[in-house]
Design goal:
Blueprint (H helix, E strand, L loop, with lengths): L9 H13 L4 H17 L4 H6 L5 H10 L4 E2 H5 L4 H6 L3 E4 L2 E4 L2 E8 L6 E8 L20 H9 L5 E7 L5 H7 L2 E8 L2 H13 L5 E5 L11 E6 L23 H9 L4 E16 L4 H10 L4 E10 L1 H11 L8 H14 L2 E12 L8 E5 L12 H13 L2 H6 L1 E4 L3 E6 L9 E6 L6 E4 L1 H9 L1 E5 H11 L4 H17 L3 E3 L2
Parallel strand pairs: 6-7, 6-9, 7-8, 9-10, 11-13
Antiparallel strand pairs: 1-3, 2-3, 4-5, 10-12, 11-12, 14-18, 14-19, 15-16, 16-17
Length: 500
């Protein structure tokens, strides 16, 4: 794209959006046209199957070759379907030797607007992907929407809210998701090119409630508060100063994620949420849960930290050297070695990836849950995420006496499984399994299993335990004494809910 960052007229955005939709340049249309084989090949950076699937002069095929595969198409054919002159003036295309070339990557994106808003078609504009053997990204490269973008979009809690902030918006993909949940969205980034492309993404998606501001971290919104903040920050942990603005900051180690969380309460309304993706260090002789949990605990807010993956230092370095297309270059070995030297000096044994969600709970006892979840869970997480935090907070608040007086009910989608030898009088194991949500499994005893079978929120826990103790010929006082700790854990993990 030209360095001048030319304005993109709304009229042109509306016209291009209608052309794309009419040609079925949508998530489902692209998926159907490419097919599984070509899609898997593209994931391996192989273009040939996709070029075969998009051959000819049919509209969708040409749009895919131009905007997605970045292959030039004949000027005459392009002018038959696109306002080439206007798009060239806006810096999205160039014409050379009878061929039209795309200067940006244009991706159809399905925008989830929360529980009540459903989903709608959107478009994300970014820099073209730099493929291996074709150089490295420029320092202010604007990366497109990918797996991390999808992960964060499914994490966002449902609205509606009044004000939302997309901190480090990049190509604007999270701003699109926030636009359907919030009356007003502010999108910030340190990179002016990112803000320009984010504005085009919003225009092409028909979004008009997003404003952009340039600056680092919270500087562009000093003194302001938001009901919802999301961020896919430049969390990549590297030695030295940042080389690429989309993935690295000038703060050392995992400090950028720590600072975003630590400063969040100053920019959240009462009950407001911040949700970010993050990398964090696993350091020798230190529990990562203490490290990351401390970021949240220091805010005085409630939070949920989830680790989804861990890479050893070599895996991590290889991932990000591939990302910047440095494999096979003269610099590869030097950078690899320097990166590992840095991790060795810092005592780094691994790098975790996951998410952090924090709620600004005014005048309440904060509860912070830190855990690892490697298995598949129900998506989108944002639909039930507040219940996870509420469960942890409720369980922490209740004393044993209060818990015995509380009314609890088995959570929806929880089933019981008994494992044992056929014909045996008693099972070897009794499991409670969540068929939805986080898909947790808990091994329980006969008392908890019996409680799960009868509790529906109509009676307090204490009298139910007394009845179960009598039926199982156990001492009621002993059952009352040992059950609260187990039940508190089951409430925290979402197997039971306190109804009153």
């Amino acid at each position: 794209m030209s360095e001048s960052l030319r304005p993109f007229p709304r009229r042109l955005a509306d016209r291009l959006r209608h052309i794309l939709i009419d040609a079925d340049y949508t998530v489902s249309g692209v998926r159907d046209r490419l097919g599984d084989t070509a899609a898997r090949a593209l994931a391996r950076e192989q273009l040939v199957p996709a070029l075969r699937a998009t051959g000819g002069e049919e509209r969708l095929g040409m749009l895919l070759r131009l905007w997605w595969l970045h292959e030039p198409i004949p000027e005459k054919a392009a002018r038959g379907i696109l306002p080439v002159t206007e798009l060239a003036e806006a810096g999205l295309l160039t014409v050379d030797g009878g061929k039209v070339h795309a200067l940006v990557h244009l991706t159809p994106w399905e925008v989830d607007e929360g529980r009540d808003g459903g989903a709608r078609a959107g478009y994300v504009v970014s820099d073209p992907t730099v493929r291996p053997g074709h150089g490295s990204p420029r320092p202010d490269h604007v990366v497109g929407a990918g797996g991390a973008s999808a992960t964060l979009s499914k994490l966002i809690v449902d609205g509606p809210v009044d004000r939302a902030l997309d901190l480090g918006t990049g190509c604007g993909v999270q701003a699109l998701h926030l636009a359907g949940r919030s009356a007003e969205v502010c999108a910030t980034d340190v990179n002016p090119r990112a803000l320009h492309l984010a504005e085009i993404s919003c225009a092409l998606s028909g979004v008009d409630n997003v404003s952009t501001r340039q600056g680092s971290l919270y500087a562009p919104v000093a003194g302001e508060r938001f009901d919802l903040i999301v961020s896919n920050p430049p969390f990549v942990i590297t030695p030295g100063s940042a080389r690429y603005t989309y993935r690295e900051s000038d703060l050392s180690g995992d400090a950028v994620c720590a600072e975003i969380i630590r400063q969040a309460p100053d920019h959240l309304t009462d009950g407001g949420w911040i949700q970010i993706l993050a990398n964090w260090l696993h350091v020798k002789d230190e529990d990562w849960r203490d490290r990351v949990g401390g970021w949240v605990t220091g805010t005085g807010c409630s939070g949920w930290v989830v680790q989804r993956d861990v890479q050893d230092p070599a895996e991590y370095v290889e991932l990000w050297l591939r990302d910047s297309c440095e494999h096979g270059t003269p610099e590869y070995t030097r950078r690899y070695d320097a990166w590992l030297d840095y991790f060795e000096r810092e005592g780094v044994t691994g790098i975790g990836f996951g998410w952090i969600s924090v709620r600004n709970d005014a005048a309440q006892d904060a509860a912070v849950r830190v855990e690892e979840l490697r298995h598949e869970i129900e998506q989108p997480v944002g639909r039930y995420l507040p219940d996870v935090v509420d469960g942890a907070m409720t369980a922490r608040r209740l004393t044993d006496a209060a818990l015995l007086s509380a009314h609890v009910a088995l959570a929806p989608h929880v089933v019981e499984e008994r494992i044992g030898t056929p014909g045996a009088p008693d099972p070897e194991k009794i499991l409670l399994r969540q068929r939805g949500g986080l898909h947790r499994v808990a091994q329980v005893g006969t008392i908890e299993a019996a409680l799960a079978s009868v509790c529906d929120g109509t009676m307090p826990v204490g009298p139910l335990l007394d009845a179960i103790a009598e039926l199982t010929d156990q001492d009621a006082a002993a059952v009352r004494a040992r059950t609260p700790d187990v039940l508190r854990s089951l409430i925290t993990e979402g197997f039971f809910r306190v109804t009153r």
